[in-house]
Each structure stands twice: as structure tokens, then as C-alpha cells.
Amino acid sequence: MTHRGSCHCGQIAFEFEGDLKNAVSCNCSICSRKGALLWAADAAQFRLLDPQAAMGAYAFNKRELQHRFCTTCGIHTHAEGDGWIAVNLRCLEEFDLASVEVVNFDGRSA
Ligand SMILES: [Zn+2]
Hints:
This protein has about 110 residues and is mainly beta. The protein contains one helix and ten strands, in the order βββαβββββββ. It has one helix spanning about 30-35; strands at about 1-5, 15, 20-25, 40, 45-50, 55-60, 65-70, 75-80, 85-90, 100-105. It has a five-stranded antiparallel beta sheet, with no helix packed on it. Zinc ion binds near residues 11, 12, 70, 73 and 75. The site of zinc ion has 9 residues, from loops.
């Protein structure tokens, strides 16, 4: 199934293939501040609708992830890992988050 999402102003829009079975709630220092619910998508299945969109990037700690956000509206849409994308499911357009189980991930200890 193809899911579509975007930041608030629409500058960053994306789609990805995936059978969403759950949403990951991570307690690490950045996820807890964002309040994001995440899904790990294969990078090959994730597509930015406008690759030229102005995106900010933030990295910290081991710098294994590039946390992407819209430079206009400030919404964090996804993070880029090595071969995978952590999608913020709260940015999806037509997806009922209440329909999937929320799984806690102890990113603070990872
Ligand atoms: Zn935006």
C-alpha cells in the first residue's frame, strides 16, 4: 500500500510503500521532544515528491541519522538512516493512527 504524507505547509511531500502494522514511540532525546510516531521504511521504497524542497538537516550524537525538517513550517517529516527512513507517521494524510498498535522503543538506552 502507498502512503502519502507531508509537512504542514506541503513543501516536503513524500510517499512510501509499506504495510503499516504498528507505530514506534521512541524515548530518545529527540523523539521525545518531537512527539513523533515512527515507521522504518526501506529507503528504496521512499520517495520525495519534490527532491528540491528546502529541507533542514540535524544530526547529533553518533550522527547516524539525518533528521529532516521543513525550513518553512518546522515540521519534522522523517529521518534518513543508512538504507532506511524513519517516517513520522503523524505527517501522513489518510492514515488512522488509532488503527495500529503503538510499540515503545527504548532509544534512550540504545
Ligand atoms: Zn513545511
